[in-house]
């Protein structure tokens, strides 16, 4: 996030696109509601009337995957009506003319055809966003989990730059990260192309720097970009990868095209899983290493708004469980790397982070422990107060100017067809967390949301003979899943929604990737739905009764 | 003066964190129920701790009684599980625990408020739809929120909001 979460309260207009924060980041609602009660306009763009959209002044119910078209149409209106910030565009950005040329092709009437949002609503949203004295964009996986995800994010930045809604309180482009320490994991280089602090592995200067920090030869680092999650499953199937160590991840539930993932994890020669519970993935492992839970770990977490915070553990690890870093150090020891992994405690590790990561250079464990609420990076020097709002004095390019990159609308990878006429989109529900390995084991959560469901509109249900609360079969080119039908008016005609916390949903999703970020297109798959044949239901009930009896 | 929970319905997002928090405080039994209406509005519903409560009136054993000025609570050992209180409650906030054969309801987290903490549902509420405090303070929040809504609707121009209610000239209030 360019701005702190709490800063949303200072916004006069919040454009929420592809985020259902009321269910996925409920705490964010606190400041959005504060802004609304102050009189801010809330615009929510989502295929479904989610609890986030309940509070919207302008609700843009768009078709999954049409975000770019919507944003282009908004910019078309803003440019046509001269609502953009001329001063900011001239002084701080490059590429505005190219953008003007491109968005000319996207009048709201054309976007209406693609997004299914009435043109007058797109115009109203564009005016509200551009005219506000401070407007913020909040986005999440609704825009990123597409084969064009990176481009849509670029387009969000374009919109905020042409209106000058950057670098001030109440403005910014604010992605909400999917888990509590995802920002921290990315900062630490848990990505395929960077060392800690987003320093590229393909850069020989960077490799030299880390060889000194880690006491090894620069040649020992691979100069190549590694494989991302989905690419790894493909590599296993192609025989290029033979062993895997999986930490805190449940790909059988969480990865797209899950049948293919299961096949790959079965085929891999050696699989070790570090887990809290015997998850669906851990069941396939040769070795399961018991990991420690959040309450048993200490160290830092970096939140979505870049705040580095120190956390102490509530209890020591129970039984044989160990914290992740201890497991890694012991594995390294067994591989003969004791000297390279001779950390004493969490403070010791953080000191190394501080030395290697420029944005963390001014943050010390002692300072963090004294700072309630943490320190937002970049914090380059010991006395630096941290940077709650980014781009106040300019952008990170050497000339300090923001680059506007026009983006064309692209169709989702999988188009609907006669055989698969419906659009399946996946997401989360408030009561479960990710693959559900923890929350499906928590009684108070699982009894409130016990099973996989498929949400669909009245008309869609009638057309395919689906009844509320009865089981239905959803089929895509990759698999089939049975789910309880939930007929709802929250979702538009022709679209189905399934939460991915339960086994089934990701057997249907497509593993097409965004070419840059390599994020899979979880949000759009072509599918069909049919009721479970009556006879099967009777047989299933009988089997359950017999097993139960 | 009694302390009460103020519910700002426009802020409730149906996250049900209050239900789960209540469950944690009360040995796995939640006395808070978030109701969703028309798939578009949510309302957290718990005991209103009525001034003249029907549940205490119908209880044959005085298991349901007013413990402090704030809270009406149930003493489980006195409860005979007749469920009369669950029928009497106009809000459906008293519910029969079929396993233990007693009635259950919100106790306003007396064990927490005694030591200066807020009820668990209030502490947990992520959207800050629930607030806890003196009745007068809470009613003040409600009033200022209402005033803010009117001002926002009139785009901040004060002149347009100070108007007499339309019924005054036609139906003047009856005087004695």
What is the tally of beta strands of chain A? 21
- Classify the oligomer: heterodimer
CATH class of the largest domain in chain A: Alpha Beta
Outline the low-pLDDT stretches of chain B: 156-176
**Count of individual helical segments of chain A:** 22
Overall mean pLDDT score of chain A? 92
Q: What does the model show?
A:
- The complex is a heterodimer of chains A (549) and B (176).
- By secondary structure, chain A is of the alpha/beta class.
- Chain A has 22 helices and 21 strands.
- In chain A, 33% of the residues lie in helices and 17% in strands.
- A 6-stranded mixed beta sheet of chain A has the order 17-19-18-21-16-20.
- Chain B has helices at residues 17-25, 54-58, 84-88, 110-113, 120-124, 135-153, 167-170; strands spanning 3-7, 33-37, 41-45, 64-66, 72-74, 95-97, 102-104, 130-134.
- Chain B has a two-stranded antiparallel sheet with strand order 1-8. Chain B has a two-stranded antiparallel sheet with strand order 2-3.
- The two termini of chain B are 33 Å apart.
- The interface between A and B is medium-sized, with 25 and 26 residues.
């Amino acid at each position: 996030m360019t701005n702190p979460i709490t800063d949303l309260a200072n916004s006069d207009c919040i454009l929420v696109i592809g985020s259902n924060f009321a269910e996925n980041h409920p705490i964010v609602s606190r400041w959005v509601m504060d802004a609304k009660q102050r009189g801010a306009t809330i615009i929510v763009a989502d295929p479904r009337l989610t609890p986030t959209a309940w509070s919207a002044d302008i609700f843009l119910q768009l078709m999954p995957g049409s975000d770019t078209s919507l944003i282009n149409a908004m910019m078309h209106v803003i440019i046509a009506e001269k609502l953009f910030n001329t001063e900011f565009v001239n002084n701080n950005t490059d590429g505005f003319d190219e953008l003007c040329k491109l968005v000319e092709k996207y009048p709201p009437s054309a976007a209406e055809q693609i997004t299914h949002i009435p043109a007058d609503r797109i115009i109203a949203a564009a005016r509200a966003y551009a005219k506000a004295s401070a407007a913020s964009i909040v986005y999440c996986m609704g825009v990123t989990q597409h084969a064009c995800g990176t481009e849509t994010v670029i387009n969000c930045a374009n919109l905020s730059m042409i209106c000058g809604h950057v670098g001030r309180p109440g403005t910014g482009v604010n992605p909400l990260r999917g888990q509590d320490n995802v920002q921290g994991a990315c900062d630490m280089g848990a990505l395929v192309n960077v060392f800690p602090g987003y320093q590229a592995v393909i850069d020989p200067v960077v490799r030299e720097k880390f060889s000194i920090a880690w006491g090894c030869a620069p040649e020992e680092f691979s100069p190549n970009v590694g494989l991302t999650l989905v690419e790894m499953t493909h590599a296993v199937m192609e025989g290029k990868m033979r062993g895997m160590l999986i930490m805190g991840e449940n790909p059988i539930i969480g990865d797209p095209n899950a049948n293919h993932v299961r096949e790959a994890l079965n085929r891999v020669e050696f699989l070790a899983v570090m887990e809290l519970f015997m998850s669906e993935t851990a069941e396939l492992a040769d070795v399961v290493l018991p990991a420690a839970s959040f309450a048993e770990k200490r160290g830092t977490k970096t939140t979505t708004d870049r705040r580095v915070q120190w956390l102490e553990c509530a209890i020591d690890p129970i039984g044989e469980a160990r914290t992740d870093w201890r497991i890694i150090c012991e594995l390294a020891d067994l591989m003969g790397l004791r000297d390279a992994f001779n950390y004493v405690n969490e403070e010791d590790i953080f000191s190394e982070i501080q030395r290697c990561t420029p944005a963390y250079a001014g943050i010390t464990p002692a300072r963090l422990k004294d700072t309630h609420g943490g320190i937002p990076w970049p914090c380059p020097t010991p006395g630096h107060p941290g940077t709650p709002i980014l781009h106040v004095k300019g952008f990170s390019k050497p000339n300090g100017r923001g680059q506007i990159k026009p983006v064309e609308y692209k169709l989702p990878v999988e188009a609907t067809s006669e055989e698969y006429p419906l659009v399946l989109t996946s997401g989360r529900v408030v009561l479960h967390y990710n693959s559900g390995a923890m929350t499906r084991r928590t009684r108070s959560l699982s009894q409130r949301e016990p099973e996989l469901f498929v949400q669909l509109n009245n008309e869609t249900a009638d057309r395919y003979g689906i009844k509320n609360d009865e089981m239905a079969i959803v089929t895509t080119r990759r698999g089939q899943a049975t789910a309880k039908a939930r007929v709802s008016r929250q979702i538009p005609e022709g679209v189905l929604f399934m939460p991915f916390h339960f086994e089934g949903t990701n057997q249907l999703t497509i593993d097409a990737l965004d070419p840059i970020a390599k994020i899979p297109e979880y949000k759009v798959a072509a599918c069909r739905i049919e009721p479970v044949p009556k006879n099967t239901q009777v047989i299933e009930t009988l089997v359950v009764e017999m097993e139960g009896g | 003066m009694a302390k009460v929970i103020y519910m700002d319905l426009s802020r409730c997002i149906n996250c049900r964190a209050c239900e789960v928090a209540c469950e944690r405080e009360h040995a796995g039994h939640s006395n808070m129920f978030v109701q969703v209406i028309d798939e578009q509005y949510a309302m957290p519903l718990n005991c209103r701790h009525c001034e003249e409560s029907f549940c205490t009136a119908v209880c044959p054993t005085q298991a349901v009684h007013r413990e402090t000025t704030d809270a009406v609570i149930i003493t489980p050992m006195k409860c005979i599980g007749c469920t009369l209180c669950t029928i009497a409650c106009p809000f459906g906030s008293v519910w029969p625990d079929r396993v233990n054969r007693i009635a259950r309801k919100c106790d306003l987290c007396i064990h927490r408020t005694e030591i200066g903490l807020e009820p668990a549902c209030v502490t947990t509420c992520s959207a800050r739809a629930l607030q806890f405090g003196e009745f007068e303070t809470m009613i003040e929040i409600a009033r200022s929120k209402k005033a803010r809504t009117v001002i926002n609707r009139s785009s901040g121009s004060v002149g347009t909001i100070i108007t007499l209610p339309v019924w005054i000239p036609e139906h003047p209030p009856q005087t004695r």
